[in-house]
Model the fold of this input.
Amino acid sequence: MAAVRIVQAIIALSVALSLLTAVLPGTFFAPRMDRTGGFWIITFSNVFTNVVFLAVLFLMGRFLQTLKDKSPFVRENVKKLKLASGLLIAVEPVQFIFQSVSNAVRPAANGQKEVLITSFGGIIFVLGLVVFCLSLVFEYGIELQKQSDETL
Done:
């Protein structure tokens, strides 16, 4: 549980630093950084991704706390897992949209268009699918526990 809190603090710091780059003067970090549309879209994209990861970690922290305090097979655990999986699955398509818009508005430098492509390589999407499958396992566990309780 402490490890989850540490990672949450690191991601919260990352969100704060991303927002800080938006308000500091353009040459504070790098003299060539300009505040074109691409800068703002990338900053917003980074903040979005970090906030999603922070929300997923928050949900997983609450999930682990529920496992510790109660039976693992309760509806609230299934809801938390499905919400976390939805957030994880949404990260990569939203990142792709942000990057496409950023590349479209980025001005050409010396007659050449610079294209930025960053991706998690589908890992986050697959992780979201795995978490969704885990939620289905917990949902099935609820049914089995219900049948077991009725049998007794």
